[in-house]
Specification:
The complex is a heterodimer. In chain A, helix 3 crosses helix 9, helix 5 (137-148) packs across helix 7 (174-198) and helix 11 runs antiparallel to helix 12 (274-301). Chain A is mostly helical. The longest helix of chain A has 42 residues, at 4-45. Chain A has twelve helices and four strands. Chain A has two domains: 1-45; 83-301, MetI-like fold. In chain B, helix 2 (101-111) packs parallel to helix 4 and helix 3 packs across helix 4 (145-157). Chain B folds into two domains: 6-232, Rossmann fold (3-Layer(aba) Sandwich); 245-362, OB fold (Dihydrolipoamide Acetyltransferase, E2P). Chain B contains eight helices and 20 strands. In chain B, the strands form four sheets. Chain B has a six-stranded mixed β-sheet with strand order 6-7-8-3-9-10, with helices on both faces. In chain B, strands 13-12-11-14-20 form a five-stranded antiparallel β-sheet, with no helix packed on it. Classes of the chains: A mainly alpha, B alpha+beta. At the A-B interface, helix 8 and helix 9 of A face strand 6 and helix 2 of B.
């Protein structure tokens, strides 16, 4: 006969085993689909490049990482900084930051507007905001081309109003990329902002007015601290995909306004330098992680928020 | 009670809420009232009577459709809430969840641009006033409902408003805490000397705390007066019914003299009853008598009305006698149980009901 203690221990063992079995599908997906490919990338970045793409397995090489930051002159072997890569990295970061700030600027009033509608109208407004999601991003981006190109809507309107004589070159500039990214990522900012604004008790706003706070002070001291979790979430949701954006800079920026995503694609395609592509991808990931760490730490320090 | 200098005057205030496309709602209908300085004034009425709307108009959260609201004789209608020297204690407290207790209390002063040292000193003073010194650095989510109530009070009082508006502030508290806070509020009002305008649907709260009460129904003020006035001398049926229990007796006016009328009741007797100021009723009227202002007597000859004792309900502190009147109708008498022992009457007894002219009151409607 088993003692009660032994029975309890056996039950606990069974419990632990069941827990592992039940979480197995999730664990397998995490390891195979998320962490596994990252290891492959890391491995590839330390191998020599193959002649027609791919890598030479087993041949360790630092060339991939080397080429991320430095360029060796083909004639005299002198080392210089990889200006092209660094300027692309800088463009990616700055454009993503500007995109994040711009979507916040437009998304905040939009979300506030929706959150202050009567309950039965809010779903309709949210639906309107998310409609662009229903169309493929490529099609939306090409549609944006129609707006921005020299014979496009913006230029024709400006010309019709006689504000300009010759079309403004918007396509294939950073401006075009910015326009496109703000348009594509705006809903990603609006939705989390709305989610935290909806939870605000608007009597707090009244209490603010009652206690002599002007509209600006109510916004700064009450509304913004309360929607901070939404601001953080929205900024992360916009910043990360912006940094790795591929379609928008490709279609609207052309070859001149390349971003990191395009540079990486180039290495795996025409460039035939997979180790460099892998190293660039990991660089991108590190940049994103660092940016997030700095951002979240700063954001949660001031004011505290309630999230 | 004499009203001192007016703190708030509402003159012919009407508020109509336009709901989109559908029928509009008249929340306030030509309301005029004067609230004196240093007064504890209560707006009493059932939900939807317009009492909170009037409060919100004074605070500046809504604007009157018609009429004027004067603060010390000055029209404050064009001023936004943040320019009115009026503060509110909200029903839900509306404390800022991202701030500490101290920051909440100091918020109003800070927004007024007071120097930091002065704000800090005032916050300490307010914390002492509501006895919460040790909770200054707590978040508002970490304190109890009663404490939140105190913080809300301190926050609204800190900027020394001319008028403090309280929107059913005690309704979320349990019975014992509510009793405590009633006394606390009364103390704060007399200590600070600020005019309190208190909104409630609780008649007991209104009677125990107020200097004067305005009873409201359907967007109108029906009667304004001291708690005694309102309770002992209700002017209209709604006031008599809403506050306490009352016996309604129908009858015909026989004659009116100064402040009194002779009424021939349907229940048989002809009685004298008090009249409201300037009232000269005629024809059919209703007379009210509070159950505790009448007594049950055995001597039928001396009684005002006679009947049969239908039911006796014992309440501990008092006993209710339900009498079926001989002339028709029912009459309730409340006797206080002044000493222990057997009750003087039994169910089914033939009894008389006795009350004087000062206990009977002719209603306006």
């Amino acid at each position: 006969m088993a003692t009660p203690r032994e029975i309890a221990m056996a039950a606990e063992k069974r419990d632990i085993r069941n827990r592992w079995l039940l979480s197995a599908p999730a664990l397998i997906i995490i390891f195979l689909a998320a962490i596994g490919p990252l290891f492959v990338m890391l491995l590839y970045s330390f191998m020599a490049k193959g002649d027609y793409g791919d890598v030479k397995f087993g041949q360790f090489s630092l060339d991939g990482w080397f080429n991320v930051f430095l360029t060796r002159d083909i004639f005299d072997d002198t080392l210089t900084f990889a200006d092209a890569h660094l300027s692309i990295l800088w463009r990616s970061i700055s454009l993503s930051l500007i995109t994040t700030v711009t979507t916040l600027f437009f998304g905040f009033p939009t979300a506030y507007f929706i959150a202050t509608r009567p309950q039965n109208q809010r779903d309709t407004w949210l639906f309107v905001v998310t409609i662009p999601f229903w169309t493929n991003i490529l099609i939306r981006t090409f549609a944006m081309q129609e707006v921005l190109r020299n014979e496009g809507i913006i230029n024709s309107v400006l010309r019709a109003m006689h504000l300009i004589d010759s079309p403004i070159q918007i396509m294939f500039t950073n401006w075009a990329v910015l326009f496109g990214m703000v348009y594509v990522y705006l809903p990603l900012m609006v939705l989390p902002l709305y989610a935290s604004m909806e939870k605000i008790d608007f009597r707090l706003v009244e209490a603010g007015y009652d206690l002599y706070a002007t509209r600006l002070q109510v916004l700064r001291r009450i509304i913004i601290p309360l929607v901070k979790p939404g601001i953080i979430a929205g900024s992360i949701l916009v910043f990360i995909p912006s940094l790795g954006a591929y379609v928008t800079p490709r279609v609207l920026g052309g070859g001149k306004s390349m971003m990191l995503g395009n540079l990486i694609e180039l290495q795996f395609g025409q460039g035939r330098d997979w180790p460099l592509g892998a190293a660039l991808s990991i660089t991108l990931m590190v940049v994103v992680t660092l940016a997030l760490l700095v951002y979240v730490r700063n954001a949660s320090k001031g004011g505290g928020g309630n999230g | 009670m004499a009203i001192g200098k007016a703190a708030i005057e509402a003159v012919g205030v009407t508020k109509i809420f336009q709901s989109s496309g559908q029928d509009s709602l008249k929340a306030l209908d030509n309301v005029s009232v004067t609230i004196g300085e240093n007064e504890f004034f209560t707006l009493l009425g059932p939900s939807g009577c317009g009492k909170t709307t009037l409060l919100r108009l004074i605070a500046g959260f809504d604007f009157p459709t018609d009429g004027q609201i004067l603060l010390h004789g000055q029209d404050i209608a064009p001023l936004p809430p943040f320019q009115r020297p009026v503060n509110t204690v909200f029903q839900s407290y509306a404390l800022f969840p991202h701030m500490t207790v101290g920051q909440n209390i100091g918020f109003g002063l800070e927004m007024q641009g007071k120097p930091k040292a002065q704000v800090a000193a005032r916050v300490e003073q307010m914390l002492r006033l509501v006895q919460m010194e040790e909770l200054k650095n707590r978040r508002t989510s970490q304190i109890s409902g009663g404490q939140q109530q105190r913080v809300a009070l301190a926050r609204a009082l800190a900027p020394e408003p001319k008028v403090l508006l309280l929107d059913e502030p005690l309704s979320a508290l349990d019975y014992k805490l509510r009793k405590e806070m009633q006394i606390e509020l009364k103390r704060l009002q007399s200590e600070t000397g600020i005019t309190f305008i208190f909104v409630t649907h609780d008649q007991e709260e209104a009677l125990t705390m107020s200097d004067r009460i305005a009873v409201m129904s359907k967007g109108k003020i029906l009667q304004v007066g001291s708690p005694r006035d309102i309770y002992d001398r209700p002017a209209v049926r709604f006031v008599a019914n809403f506050i306490g229990e009352t016996n309604f007796l129908e009858g015909e006016v026989v004659s009116t003299a100064k402040g009194q009328a002779k009424i021939a009741l349907d229940a048989g007797a002809t009685i004298a009853a008090g009249l409201g100021e300037g009232a000269t009723p005629s024809g059919r009227v209703t007379v009210v008598v509070r159950p505790e202002h009448a007594s049950v007597v055995a001597a039928l000859g001396k009684a005002t009305l006679t009947g049969k004792l239908q039911n006796i309900v014992y309440f501990g502190t008092d006993t209710h006698y339900h009498v079926n009147l001989n002339g028709g109708g029912e009459f309730t008498v409340r006797h206080q149980n002044v000493h222990a022992g057997a009750l003087a009457f039994e169910k089914g007894d033939k009894v008389g009901v006795l009350f004087g002219a000062e206990a009977a009151r002719v209603l306006r409607d």
